[in-house]
Design a protein that fits this description.
alpha+beta; 13 helices; 33% strand; globular
């Protein structure tokens, strides 16, 4: 989308400090429920009652950890997040906020005397606020007309960087002022839609002065540039980093628009110098995603995540380190063949701690800056949100298939649970168990398959089962606990869940991960059939009562299996899946997905990879469909349009296949609103119970 409006004129920003407030705006408080299980089995209502722990911020003196807990209200169809602190040496947590809206983005400021965070103003726009470390004296620090998407203080806290949306396209009224009620969108390039929105605004980094009570002199450091920073749809404050002297800001941007933006993943790290008012590209010539800049505590080095190839959004995330005085850069993970999710510097600047998918888990690792040796710090769970409490003591969020996030301590190889937000709830339950099975693939390699067995599992009984098809297509199938696709919930409903780490998933080396590229209907589909056949050979699996389900690429997998499973499955359910790859190629927004994963456009007759992909599109096998199928989709899904699901449903009904479709007009690629989420889960089990348990 091209804009002829000067971007400097579109921010419409005003700044002021508000009078201190001790009392939050009036409103309904969403809080922990007094959940009591009547069955002792993990069910939808139990899952919705759980506290969702997030964020780990260690106080400057290392004595406390600041974190958030959010709860959902089915009745209010909303959620809310409040802030807590807990002594790292041990003791009870203290609740700092109890407000009707969520506090987010919290950080310690003023050497731990205060906490800054995002909270909506009276107009519902998120602003930067601060309060004392005990939760008192809430003060609004910014009044930005468009709201604030994130903030980052400079090292000495004399400046602050804000993420603020600015107008990026001309409206009908801008073009024809005499037609103020006209609604037509004039479009002359790609990327007019992204993820779940029509793009009318883009984020820019603004920087202002901060005196402890107010922000002044706010300036757009990308003024008149029609580029995003951070990158949408998921980029945030991790895309910004202050230089150690506070005289510069490093930011992530893909400085492209329209078609060029749609086909490229080439983002770079840019340095804006406040003294010279100039911008330089720190990663010029590095062609893939460059993201997550972070300076070492001693200020001598800059680390970031870097992908090598343009157009490949699931390339291996390497860890690069730049010597800040000389600008020399080095891939310190060149000899480590796995992709990194997130990292943090150790306070002594001698090592970096990171998490990465690895053989069905997401462990915590350490890499030595001198030797580049990687060692494992904690394993057998999925870790996230790493923070250093002391030289040999770390905090991290961690979860498994059967336990949601809690904070854990990692000290000298010993892992201990630190918070117990959901312990009382989970103690009421008998939970599924997870087993690791190794299954032979048709190409001779072995594949890790997770099996989740129902509560009170009896190996002498026969159980219905569901094959779970992972999305992404290159997203780790590890020990994850999801509030959307929850394998513990599925198993607790009486199913054996079969979750294959098929080809095309990270954690097993680059070759395994990349096998799926330009081979959607290839080896990974054979892997699903191998996993299904293996499961059917187990004495406790009912071979006639196996289903298959998945979302996104997992939904594509279900559609493809529908025409190629040769009577292995008795019921299918696809969410947000690709049914027709030719239509998907022209409907989706981030075209690099289609070009890299599918191989290219269907009209490229000399492109063998593209021709193979499109000739094997799921819609070409509808004549072989013979299995009941349920289809769900969100209408705000602009990654995979709901028309894909509608086509599949229509095809099933025209073929006389039992089918049901659920369209959510107010959801995107994910079903997020509490009542919609509960509805989706109920329909999920209603469908499979009907066909796999004969519950009409």
């Amino acid at each position: 989308m091209k804009s002829t409006l000067p971007l400097a004129m579109t921010a419409l920003l005003t700044l002021a400090a508000c009078a201190p407030k001790d009392k939050a705006d009036e409103g309904k408080i969403i809080d922990r429920t007094d959940y009591k299980s009547e069955t002792g089995i993990f069910d939808i209502e139990c899952m919705e009652s759980l506290g969702r722990v997030s964020g780990i911020q260690v106080s400057p003196d290392g004595s406390q950890v600041l974190y958030g807990i959010s709860y959902e209200s089915i009745e209010e169809n909303a959620s809310n997040r409040d802030l807590y602190v807990k002594p790292i040496a041990g003791g009870d947590s203290t609740r700092l906020t109890r407000t009707p809206k969520s506090e987010n983005g919290e950080v310690w400021i003023d050497n731990g005397d205060r906490i800054a965070f995002l909270y909506p103003d009276k107009e519902g726009k998120p602003q930067v606020w601060a309060m004392k470390a005990d939760g008192s004296n809430r003060t609004q620090l910014t009044t930005v007309e468009n709201g604030v998407g994130g903030f980052l203080f400079s090292p000495d806290q004399s400046k602050i960087a804000l993420i603020v949306n600015i107008k990026s396209v001309r409206t009908a009224e801008d073009i024809y002022p005499d037609l103020p009620k006209a609604t037509g969108r004039v479009i002359d390039d790609l990327m007019y839609k992204h993820w779940d929105e029509w793009v009318t605004e883009i984020p820019h980094p603004f920087v202002g002065n901060f005196d402890g009570t107010k922000v002044t002199d706010l300036t757009d450091i990308m003024i008149d540039e029609p580029y995003e920073a951070p990158m949408k749809p998921f980029g945030g404050i991790e895309s910004l980093a202050w230089t150690p002297d506070g005289n510069g800001l490093v930011y992530v941007s893909r400085k492209k628009t329209g078609l060029e933006y749609a086909i490229s993943t080439n983002s770079d790290l840019y340095l804006y110098d406040f003294n010279s008012k100039t911008t330089s590209n720190l990663t010029e010539g590095m062609m893939g995603y460059d993201t997550n800049p972070a300076f070492s505590p001693d200020g001598t080095k800059l680390a970031w995540l870097s992908m090598e190839r343009d157009g490949y959004e699931a390339d291996r995330n390497r860890l690069f380190v730049m010597d800040w005085p000389t600008r020399e850069k080095q891939d310190i993970t060149a000899d480590w063949d796995y992709t990194i999710d997130e990292f943090v510097w150790a306070k002594d600047s001698k090592s970096i701690k990171f998490i990465a998918p690895y053989h069905g888990f997401i462990p915590m690792f350490s890499i030595d800056l001198a030797s580049h040796q990687v060692t494992t710090m904690a394993e057998n769970m999925d870790y996230a949100g790493i923070a250093e409490a002391a030289p040999d003591k770390w905090l991290a969020l961690a979860h498994t298939f059967v336990h949601a996030n809690e904070i854990y301590t990692i000290e000298n190889g010993k892992v201990e649970q630190f918070t117990g937000v959901n312990d009382a709830t989970m103690a009421q339950l008998t939970l599924p168990t997870a087993e690791k099975h190794m299954v032979k693939c048709t190409n001779g390699e072995e594949m890790l398959v997770w099996m989740l067995l129902p509560p009170n599992f009896d190996p002498n009984k026969k159980y219905p089962s569901i094959l779970y098809c992972q999305g992404g297509p290159q997203s780790a199938l590890s020990q994850y606990f999801s509030f959307r696709w929850n394998l513990c919930l599925m198993a607790s409903h009486g199913y054996v869940i079969i979750a294959p780490n098929r080809h095309g998933l990270p954690g097993f080396g680059s070759a395994w991960n990349e096998q799926i590229s330009k081979d959607y209907p290839g080896q990974n589909m054979k892997d699903y059939l191998s996993a299904a056949d293996y499961a059917k050979s187990l004495p406790y699996i009912d071979p006639d009562k196996m289903g298959a389900t998945g979302a996104s690429y997992g939904g594509f997998s279900v559609y493809w299996l529908a025409g190629n499973h040769e009577h292995r499955f008795a019921a299918l359910l696809a969410h947000a899946g690709i049914f027709n790859t030719e239509a998907q190629y022209l409907e989706t927004e981030e075209m690099w997905f289609a070009n890299w994963d599918m191989g290219g456009a269907f009209w490229e007759k000399d492109n063998a990879a593209a021709q193979r992909t499109h000739s094997m599109s799921p819609h070409r096998f509808v004549d072989k469909w013979d299995t009941p199928i349920m289809i769900t989709h969100g209408e705000y899904d602009y990654r995979i349009l709901s028309s894909q699901g509608e086509m599949a449903f229509n095809a099933a009904k025209l073929r006389g296949i039992p089918a049901e479709m659920v369209i959510f007009p107010d959801e995107n690629h994910w079903i997020l609103k509490p009542q919609n989420a509960v509805m989706w889960q109920r329909l999920f089990f209603r469908w499979f119970d009907r066909w796999l348990k004969d519950e009409k």
